[in-house]
Sequence to fold (94 residues):
Amino acid sequence: MSDSDRIRVHVFVSGHVQGVFYRASTRDKAHEEGVDGWVKNLDDGRVEAVFEGPKEAVDAMVEWCHTGSRAASVEAVERTAEAPTGIDGFKIRR
Fold:
């Protein structure tokens, strides 16, 4: 895939999304979809993530964020498009 085929989306997920395997589930789903990026907990209780890859796969990740892990209770997902930076792999940030 060329860089021009990649998109990047920055999301903030609010609700009951910490302590419910949200980050690990996000990483697993990203690997399944072939999406690069990262996910981390924020001090305010939200989860922040960046997804980079093919449009269909990134869109699937954003859609997945609305549900998240089984124990999560998502209230909102804020999505912002950004220019891809060439991230490689998917990591849980601390």
